[in-house]
């Protein structure tokens, strides 16, 4: 793809960087979701056209690990992709003198999970996540067996159950340390994944009194329609972050 580069670290990471106005001290990091099962392109960047008129720095990071992607973790949860991705993000931010609180992560479905993961783990400024998954092991064993093999290994291996439990709890465990990110979340009760993945996460946010913005779209009819309604949501909310209107009280 035009403009695509490779960042070499623990694991090679493919990315596209779009430079914005240098006076705008913001970086948006966009993560990719799963391609549809019948798609000829198994690894693709998301929301490139939607953000084309947003005059800030944009870093699109591809998840091409395994056959169809693996949530940017790494094979058998060795987290080499994780470390390479955050290294790329921090290098880009340093090149433009962008602080952690001015880094925004964004994505939907698998990309939404990644936006949450990197934003929460590395204490970045804001997170925009749509129709994300939290019980990842449950999801991939049911819907993405190729990711199951890549992330968890053979079901008969001695570490399989350990990895399974680790992957199912990894998103919730991120809430055990201080949350410094502004959280903007969208889903729909019409999405079958909502009750399984989104609602338990929202319940824990409420239990821990973690401030967040959650929008449940009445118009979104199924999971795949997040690609329609998520851009409408984040474009409205993004202005808060670009003009430093902070939701979280530290």
Automatic annotation (TrEMBL):
Organism superkingdom: Bacteria
Family matches, as Gene3D superfamilies: alpha/beta hydrolase
Protein name, as recorded: Two component regulator three Y domain-containing protein
Species this protein is from: Jeotgalicoccus nanhaiensis
């Amino acid at each position: 793809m035009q403009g695509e580069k490779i960042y070499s670290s623990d694991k090679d990471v493919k990315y596209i960087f779009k430079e914005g106005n240098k006076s705008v001290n913001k970086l948006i990091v966009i993560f990719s979701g799963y391609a549809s099962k019948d798609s000829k392109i198994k690894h693709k960047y998301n929301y490139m056209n939607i953000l084309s008129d947003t005059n800030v720095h944009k870093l699109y990071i591809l998840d091409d690990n395994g056959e169809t992607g693996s949530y940017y973790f790494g094979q058998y949860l060795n987290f080499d992709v994780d470390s390479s991705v955050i290294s790329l993000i921090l290098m880009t931010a340093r090149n433009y003198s962008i602080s952690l609180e001015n880094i925004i992560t964004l994505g939907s479905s698998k990309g939404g999970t990644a936006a949450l993961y990197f934003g929460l783990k590395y204490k970045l400024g804001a997170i925009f996540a749509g129709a994300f998954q939290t019980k990842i092991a449950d999801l991939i064993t049911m819907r993405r067996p190729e990711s199951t093999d890549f992330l968890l290994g053979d079901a008969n291996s001695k570490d399989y159950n350990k990895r399974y439990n680790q992957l199912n709890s990894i998103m919730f465990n991120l809430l055990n340390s201080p949350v410094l990110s502004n959280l903007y979340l969208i889903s729909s009760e019409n999405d079958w994944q909502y009750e399984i993945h989104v609602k338990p996460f929202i319940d824990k946010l409420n239990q821990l009194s973690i401030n967040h913005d959650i929008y449940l779209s009445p118009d979104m009819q199924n999971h795949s329609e997040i690609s329609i309604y998520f851009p409408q949501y984040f474009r409205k909310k993004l202005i808060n972050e670009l003009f430093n209107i902070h939701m979280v009280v530290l």
